[in-house]
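dumping this here before i forget
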Amino acid sequence: MTDESATPDAPQDKPTSDAPANAGHDRADVRDTESSNWVLRIVLVLVALVAAFIAFRVAAAFFPRWWAQRVADQVQGGFTAGTLWGLFYGFLFTFVPLLILFQIRRRFFNWTWRLIVALFAIVLAAPNWLTLSVVLGTSKAAHAGERIMDVDAPNFRAGTLIGAVIGAAAALALTATSLWMTRRKNQVKRLKSERDQLRRSISQPPDESH
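structure:
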């Protein structure tokens, strides 16, 4: 009597043809996703450009006349008042924004914060930008603003220009002085460190060789 040992057939590995197919589908999905992302970005950029253009046109049609009227209400037709108000706006809203803008050189600012600081400085100089829109603008609102300033705010634009030049020069001088003082401070600190090292080396007794 012979014992017949029934050995179960070993499962044979079947070629997995699904893996390459799934990988191909995954790559196709990634490409489709990247393409859709690029299309979305392009659409968003175009929408932003159109919105910026519309906002610029609306601002050009409104703000020059509005700003000229606000200035006229302050100056009230006086030549001296127009000069003083122009110097005030030109100096203050050039000096302070430039000081803020120069802070982007700080190393602890990353690029995001540098962009935020730069935008804040630009927005802070809005009075000077508005006066510039009256001076250089070609819209009907800009021409109307020029006529309003000619009658009710004489010499305001010239005073603003002089104040802006003085403010820019003062901001540059203050920043340059601050940089020079910081450099001198670092030099003094380095020289003191070298002096202390020299004193320690002199005060230490020489090693005696036996």
